[in-house]
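Entry 14. Structure prediction run on the chain below.
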Amino acid sequence: MTVPAVLRPYVTSLVAYDVDFGAPGVHRGMPSTGTTFVLPVDEPLTTSWGSGTEPVSAWSLVSGLHTRPARIHHSGSQRGVQLALTAAGVRALFAMPAAAWQGELLALDEVTPPGGVRHLPERLAETDPRQWADLVATTLIGALARHGEPSPRAEVGRALALLTGGAGVQQVADEVGYSRRRISDLVRAETGVAPKQFQRLARFDRSRGMVGRMPLAQAATACGYADQAHLTREWQEFAGCAPTTWLREEFPFVQDLADR
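Output returned:
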C-alpha cells in the first residue's frame, strides 16, 4: 500500500504479502539501510544468519541493519505484513536508536512494552487479509501519537539522507559542518554501521530495484558503481550471490536483459 503521509518519515515501505513458493525452502532477506519489521500470519517466521547460527522463530520479528543476507525459512507459502523503518521510525515507535538492533533478530516482546504495536500479531490473525495493511498503518499512527520519541539529531538525519543519496563521507562531513570523525561517530551511534558502510548499503538498495529491469552494466552505472564487476563484487558481499543468481532463485521468470 502507499505509505500514509504522516508515516513517511518513519516507514519507507508497508507491504501485505501472500506468496506461494510451491515447495518448502529458504529465501534471502537482503541487507538495506532500513530496519525490517515483519508480522507473519498462519505460522511463525523462522530466520537465521546462515549456517552455524541458531534460527529465531517468532510471530513478529525486527531485524537491525545487517551486512549479510538473512535466511528466511518457509513451508511453501508465507502471508503477513512487512515494513521497512527509518532510523527515525525506530526511535519513534520503539524509543531506541536503530544501532541497538544492529545485526540482531528480535521478537516484538523483546523490544517493546505490552500494548500498541506489540499486539499486532494477534490482531492481524483476527482480521480479513484485505484489511491487514490498513490495520498496521492505523496502529502505527496511534503508537506515534501516544509514544512518539524525538527523531535523531538533525545533523545525523541530514547525514543519513546525504549518504542515502550517494554522497561521499567527506562530502557529508563538509555539508553538515562536522569533522569526518565526528560524523562517523554520530552515524555509527545511530545506525550501528559506519558512514561508508551505510552509503554502500544505500547503493546496494538502489541496485536491487534495477537489476532485472535493465542490463547489469547499465544498472551499475546508474547506481554509481565503477563497472558491472564492481556491482557484482558488492552483491557477493551483501547478498551472498551474484545478481543473476538472485534473479534466477527469487524470480525464475525474469532474465537479465543483457542476455536478450
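Confidence is low (pLDDT under 50) at residues 253-260.
Filed with the rest of this week's runs.
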